[in-house]
Design brief:
The chain is of the alpha+beta class. It is built from 3 helices and 5 strands; from the N terminus they run ββααβαββ.
């Protein structure tokens, strides 16, 4: 079970928002067709927000937490140019995002 804190900056006037996620199965990981569908499948009771309550940026935060847990904090991309076949690479850390 994973807890994701959705509160960017703790503030006394803003209640904490959290969600709890059950473990993802290999089938769910490979068959996921939308972030929304995956979140609805994984979010379980116990948090202060449900899948239906999440803003788009909160959905992104949860998906980033899932990615970080499964694959680590670095996202890498290696893409060849269609015109010249030159390889372009980029990487970034999820915590920087």
């Amino acid at each position: 079970m994973m807890k994701v804190d959705l509160s960017d900056v703790p503030a006394p006037s803003v209640p904490d928002r959290t969600v709890f996620l059950r473990d993802i199965t290999a089938t769910e990981e490979l068959d996921a067709h939308s972030a929304d569908g995956l979140l609805h499948a994984l979010i379980v009771e116990g948090g202060t927000a449900s899948a239906n309550d999440l803003t788009l940026s909160e959905q992104d935060m949860v998906i980033a937490a899932i990615y970080r847990t499964l694959y680590g904090g670095t996202i890498e991309c290696h893409v060849p140019c269609r015109a010249c076949d030159r390889l372009f690479e980029t990487r970034f850390e999820i915590v920087d995002w």
